[in-house]
Known about the structure:
Layout: H1 2-17, H2 66-81, H3 87-90, E1 93-97, E2 100-107, H4 110-121, E3 128-135
Parallel strand pairs: 2-3
Antiparallel strand pairs: 1-2
Amino acid sequence: MGRILNQLGIASLLCSAALPGTGFAADPAPPVITEGKTASNVDNTAINKRDNYAGNKTPEDQFNSAADRNLLAEVRRAVVHDKSLSVMAHNIKIMVDAGNLTLRGPVKTADEKLKVEKIVQAVKGVKSINNSLDVKTN
């Protein structure tokens, strides 16, 4: 009988460890809210508002020719390969139309915006660049 009670005690201890809020190390930490910062601050929706109107091309409108796909891959590779760029810069939108590129999205600084343009211009096959990158201000 004592052995059964001992096993029940261990089982109930293990069950309580799985309950949220019991304070065990396996519980996820509560979210930290910094004064003045909310979840919307990490969302780039506001900075990409210009993509919302019908006349503006987005990555979904990317032409599907083999030459454009290959150029896009080369440009993306060149941007991502430069480790001095921020994660934001690595994730910019790149659209290619017959060798003409459009760059959109946020970057950290004006210098980074120019650096991305120089990297892209150095890729063989790029005819022109519409640098519409935004410098993120917050």
